[in-house]
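Quick one, tokens below. Sequence please?
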């Protein structure tokens, strides 16, 4: 399996860190990660297995995270401000929106000379994928939205405890940070799939060593809140779309996945039994198979 070293490109006026798996001549799949998570949260083995299906797999750090550009001059919304906006659906002024992050993804495609790609986004990455389907449909071959949402505020929320847990700023000392990540993902994993603590300990250490950036996470969260609902705009999406969701998701309830599939014309919904708000190794074959089948069907 051919894997590149980490590289950097200028995209949409910022620098993005990325790496790739597989052969550049194969159909490209871009993996877009969720809130506050670096590209390495797309596990290397997952990327390799996906590339083995005949794809050129590209993962990257979103703006404000990992080794991509930090937008520190943009300022950071206060936690109380975001809590109020999230709880009471009040307007929020954010330094940038999800559609700006979608433009970053298009900029990465331009830099890599990719005319059109299959896009797979997880959680906030699914929201960015939806924004791309709304604003840049000509650049998408297919779209897959995993454990994500339309942003419709009428959908059921996670428990207040879970939402407040998400707002908790991560520690900046290595051991405390690792513990924080393990506890968070244990909570998000749900009870069905075994929790691989060693894998998350290693992921936390790798994330810490690459660079943690709590202010960037706050700005990404502000982008999610301030971007509002995509429900109406999704009704005009013509991109072949797949929606994957776990039936045990404690953060973004399954109703959000169903609503996403309902909002997009002719979207396919795939519910994974027992999956929470993580992608455990046990679910990889089902996820990869669903994505590969979706891409194959869209080519017919």
């Amino acid at each position: 399996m051919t894997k590149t070293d980490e590289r950097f490109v200028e995209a949409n006026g910022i620098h993005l860190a990325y790496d790739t798996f597989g052969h550049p001549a194969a159909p490209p799949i871009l993996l877009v990660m969720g809130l506050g998570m670096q590209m390495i949260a797309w596990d290397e083995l997952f990327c390799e297995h996906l590339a083995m299906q005949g794809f050129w797999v590209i993962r990257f750090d979103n703006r404000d995270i990992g080794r991509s550009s930090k937008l520190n001059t943009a300022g950071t919304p206060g936690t109380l401000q975001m809590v109020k906006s999230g709880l009471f659906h009040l307007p929020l002024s954010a330094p940038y929106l999800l559609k700006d992050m979608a433009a970053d993804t298009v900029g990465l495609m331009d830099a890599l000379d990719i005319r059109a790609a299959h896009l797979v986004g997880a959680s906030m990455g699914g929201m960015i994928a939806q924004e791309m389907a709304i604003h840049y449909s000509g650049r998408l071959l297919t779209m897959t939205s995993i454990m994500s949402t339309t942003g419709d505020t009428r959908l059921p929320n996670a428990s207040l405890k879970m939402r407040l847990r998400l707002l908790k700023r991560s520690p900046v000392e290595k051991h405390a940070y690792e513990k924080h990540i393990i506890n968070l993902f244990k909570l998000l994993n749900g009870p069905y799939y075994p929790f691989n603590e060693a894998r998350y300990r290693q992921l936390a250490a790798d994330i810490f060593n690459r660079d943690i950036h709590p202010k960037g996470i706050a700005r990404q969260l502000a982008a999610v809140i301030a971007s509002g609902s995509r429900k109406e705009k999704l009704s005009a999406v013509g991109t072949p779309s797949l929606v994957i969701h776990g039936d045990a998701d404690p953060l973004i309830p399954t109703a959000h996945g169903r609503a996403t599939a309902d909002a997009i014309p002719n979207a396919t919904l795939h519910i994974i039994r027992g999956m929470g708000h993580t992608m455990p190794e046990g679910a990889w074959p089902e996820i990869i198979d669903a994505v590969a089948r979706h891409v194959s069907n869209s080519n017919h």
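The two ends are 27 Å apart (CA to CA). The chain has eleven helices and eight strands.
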